[in-house]
Amino acid sequence: MNNRRNTAKPLVLGSLILAGPALADVNSDGGSLETVVVTASKREELIKDVPMSVTALSGGDLQRLQETQFTDFATQVPGLSLQALNPAETRLVLRGMNVGSSGATVATVVDDVPFSMSGAQANGAFFGADVDTFDLNRVEVLKGPQGTLYGATAEGGIIKYVTNAPDPTKFDAAAVVGGSKVDDGQTEGVIKGMINLPFWDNKAALRLTGMKEGIPGYIDSPAYGTSDINHGTKYSLRGSLLVRPVDDLVARVTVFDQQIDMRNTNQVDVVGAAADPANPPANQFQRVDGYATNASWPGGQTVHMRYYALNVQYDMHFATLTDNTSYGTINNFLYDNLSDTNLIPGVTYGQYLGGAVYGKPIIVDEAQTQYVHKLNQELRLTSNPGTKLFGHDFDWLVGAFFTRETTILSQPVEARDLSTLETLQPALGGANIPADYKEKAGFVDLTYHFNQAFDISAGVRYSHTDQDSQVQLQCCVLYGPSQVFPYEYTSEHSTTWQVAPRWHIDENNLLYARYSTGYRPGGPNLPTPTLPNPPSFRPDSTRNYELGFKSDLLDHRLSFDIAVYDIDWTNVQIVSEVDTPAGPVGINGNSGSARNYGVEWDVSWQPVPGLRLQALGSWINAKITTDAPGLGALSGDKLPYVPDVTATVNADYTWHLVRNYSMFAGTSWSYVGTRYTDFTTSSAVEGHAKLPSYDSLKVYVGFDNGHVNAELYGTNLTNSLGILTYANNGGVNQTGLATFITPRTVGVEIGVKF
Fold first, then answer.
1. SS (H, E, C) 139-207
2. Where are the alpha helices (DSSP H) in 607-668?
3. What's the pLDDT score for residue 578?
4. Is 713 in a helix, a strand, or coil?
5. Which end of the chain lies in a sparser environment, N or C, as judged by fewer CB atoms within 10 Å?
């Protein structure tokens, strides 16, 4: 029997030989399905041997399906759901881990760079590194708590981008041009390029990747007589230098820069239930005037992400030493119109402040800014293949990690004259919230192979976090005179661990179990004039029980991966309200507990050479298990924005056309079941509204000869009105707001490889 562990030495060296296949990719000879090597456990391993639920999406499949961002590829990941407001503002939810809190439960990682907000002070729940997928090797999605190896915010799992490393052995280049058209909207173009330049006698290489695209608008503004106001632009640049001066040493430096500019939000006016939230009409999700908004002040968003990373790996022959150093910045500018948001049912902030303070119709707008600076340092030592303990294979990994995250959340609010748009006095005011988050951690991961068929892995991580934050209030109407509060401090520690027995029933069938724990840091709350000494909020934690089975059958033409899980979530972090003599004040808190259990599946079949069929999806039952009055939830209530069922069916066929040309065609149909909106304790908001299910359809066709390729594609061909997020109020004239999936879009891309 062959040893089924397919580990390698340095990850960077291994990535040079990866061609980027996905779990269900077809071999070039059309013979069988092929697996992919992943780095989920921070060592290279065949995905079919990993004792946890992992989805790997290859760069080739992402390109063919035109999946460039979270909202595109979410349907290809069992257990992943979204609450998406805009292309640059998305809450990620894995296995139902969501109650609407400020801190993220899903971490995003680029190669080995943690690139998401660990603390909750800057509202990190709606930010994840939504990296463009051009020239990626793959995207890995690890489901369930990953705190042992990845630390804070990986309570629900992680999304990990794996870029293509520079290749010192050959020159490579590619260029892509194309464009897309949205129904009753704009046509925009895209250009992408990549070049790989080897030098120094195959000891070094430089890889440069870039793209720029227009984001077509399709939402109109009848109030201003303008069309397609939600258009935008996006660019992404990545440069990576790899140097291998000797066989045992590899160093890689990467610089990344990406920016998304949205001229308006993707929200449109719907009927809503603003005037009477307790009795919503049956047609509350219906659009008022198609894809349109009558807002008196435009919204918009700019997200600028940068990181600089150094990865050094040294093969010490008994183990490989890896040093990862990175520094990243996130600048998120959000312009929001609060004029039509209800203070109480039937009365908006604009109406109340205009009458009570200014004596005229006004616009209330907020220009929120998030500044995040994140320094990461990780040092780890990983055993090389062949290490023995008591005569049996023994894999070990030990490491230390440090991160410092400095944030500033700025929330100035202005009042403007509705007719002249001039800023009015007295100023409404606002707040600046500087905060600092530090985390130190040590971790160990061990795998002992009792024989070639059975092994057990176990890991533990100890983390210590220190946080401080301050509130700086600005004069005048909302908070009174300008005021600076003293810094608030918290310090805490946590231990997460996992154990996973794994049994290779035979060469093609794996049965595993996994128990893992996760946590999300607590932190200081933000004082206000009416609540100057708020209590801090505590960490929440999860316990995950998982059982999975992975199999390759029919000479590797049929594969399936199925996992069942049960998650206990305690001390759940929430956004709640505290009653004070001057009225309710919103703070972060802890309330109640939840339980999420479900099943995920992924089945791929190649009935004939060139034809690939795939069915994947999940069923989730995610509920509050004890009353959470601070959240406005009762035991038995389902968690927000978690579909009960998701399902996707893919079909892809490639065949020889003529000479060295091949044709390909495919389709992807996806279904998202019913979900519920956020909980609330406010009388002005309809909490826990049940959203309807929806489905969507993609189709593509093209040709490829290895040097030139072209593709014609269509997304959401049925023009489905799938709701991504909903609020019962916030629209003009006591209407609501909703974000829908992008309407029917058709496009074309032409690529050249050199």
1. EEEEECCCHHHHCCCCCCEEEEEEECCCCCCCCEEEEEEEEEEECCCCEEEEEEEEEEEEECCCCEEEE
2. none
3. 58
4. strand
5. N
124 token code pair: 């990190």
Please name which of 547, 549, 553 lies closest in space to residue 567, comparing C-alpha atoms: 547
Residue 79 near residue 67 (C-beta atoms within 8 A): no
pTM of the model: 0.92
What pLDDT, on a 0 to 100 scale, did the predictor assign at position 205? 98
358 three-state secondary structure = helix
> Are residues 345 and 277 in contact, defined by beta-carbon separation less than 8 angstroms?
yes
Q: What is the DSSP secondary structure assignment for residue 47, as one 8-state letter? A: G
Peptide bond before residue 426 is cis, with ω within 30 degrees of 0: yes
Q: Which helix (H) or strand (E) holds 647?
A: strand 645-658
Choose among 98, 167, 182, 12: nearest CA to 679: 98
Structure tokens at 81: 């759901």
The upper half-sphere exposure of residue 720, i.e. CA atoms within 13 Å in the direction of its Cβ, equals 18
Give the pair of three-digit tokens for residue 49.
Answer: 């041997």
Whole-angstrom distance, CA of residue 696 vs CA of residue 724: 13
Torsion (CA) 675, 678, 679, 681 in degrees, nearest 10: -150
Tokens matching residue 72: 């595109």
Of 244, 210, 7, 240, nearest to 113 by C-alpha is: 240
pLDDT tens-digit series, residues 173-217? 999 999 999 999 999 999 999 999 999 999 999 999 999 999 999
- Specify the amino acid at residue 251: A
The answer to whether the beta carbons of residues 328 and 371 sit under 8 Å apart is: no
Helix (H, G, I), strand (E, B) or coil at 209: strand
Each residue's pLDDT tens digit, 331-352: 999 988 899 999 899 999 999 9
